Structures are given as C-alpha cells and as structure tokens.
Amino acid sequence: FLSTADVDKALSTDTPLVIGRKGTGKTAVFRVLASQEAPSVVVTAPSGMAEQFGWTPGVRFYAGLESQMRERGLPWGAVWTALVALAVLRVRPDEVPRPGWVDGELKTAASGDHNVGTATLDDLALLFNDSRAALRVEEWLQDIDRSLTEECVLLFDGLDTGFGGTDEERHRRSDAVAGLLTVVNEVGQNLRHLRFKVLLREDIWREVKLPNKSHL
What we know:
Layout (H helix, E strand, L loop, with lengths): L6 H5 L5 E4 L5 H10 L4 E5 L5 H4 L5 H14 L3 H16 L16 H4 L4 H12 L5 H15 L4 E5 L10 H20 L7 E8 H6 L9
Parallel strand pairs: 1-4, 2-3, 3-4
Helix pairs in contact: 4-7, 5-7, 5-8, 5-9
C-alpha cells in the first residue's frame, strides 16, 4: 500500500502499485511518467487522454474481450500478459520479437491509431489459438523484455472508469484488476526491463480478492 503523498516512491520504477483515493494525484503521476523522456508504454489510460496517449481500452472493448475469454476459457492473467505484449509491440513494432507460434503478421503492429480495439481482439484470438498459449504468451513477454536494453515503464491508469458503472461492469472490473495484479506479482518479478506501474483507486483495491495482497 502506498499513498500518493509520497511522490518519489510513486514515481519510482521499484513501486509497481500506487493506491490512493480519488483526487489524490494518481493521474498526475501517470502524466509525469507518460510524458518524460524515459521509455514508457501506456497500456490503459483515462478515457479523456486517448488523443494524447493513443488508444486505450474502454467499456465496449472490455465487454467484447470478456465474451471472447469465456468462449476460450481464458483467465484474466493470461489476457493481461498478452495485452501488455501487444501494447509494447504497437509502440515499438520494429524493435521487439514476434510470437513464433503465430502464422502471419499481428494486426496490432500495423494498426497505428486506427481500429486498435478490433485489431487487438483479432490478435488475441490468434495468440490463444493454441493449447499452450498461456505459457507461450508469458514466454513471449519475457522474450520482449530480453530484447530491450533499458527500462520501460508499463503504465495502467483509468481502471476505475474504463469498465463502466453497471453492476455487471463493476464485477468485470474487479475480476480484471485481480488478474492484472496477479500478473504484476507473478510475471513482473521475472522481467528485467519492463516495469509495471498500476495506479489504482483505494476503494477498488479493497474490493479486489487476491492471494498474497501484501506482496504487492
């Protein structure tokens, strides 16, 4: 648990999770990290910042994603791992390795800022069209990490509003955030250059059911 009052710790790449009440400066931390010269990749952002930081997942994307997950029996942890890898690929298409088990080019790498949501869902269908896909995706993210020569911060903000406000959407958000934090805890510790930075509202943190919460 980290208060956003401690700005130095909030900005440090050694701090993967920043928790605070609404209006305590989490998005200010996001803006600083997303705008500075040090490399960063925005995976999710507040909806009003899409023009500044590019496409970000929204209510309809998450609903479509959950439907696709149910069809394939996919856990949120595996899907977040793939979303992170695709986000890095979208930002650095000429630098990172492609997944070796996928035939053809992933649409995300060529989409630019156009139809990114549809391209991402199509790419997820390709990535998980394999019985060992969850492991393969994690290994792909590790390959991407090894291909980098300097730290790159993976930024997650806007998780409070990005999923919507209905009971169904809030339940989806709780499951999704639990899956994301599982990735931070279990996958993130094996990465050398990719550093997670999740900015999360305090009430959402309290709602999340997650083993080993104290380890974050």
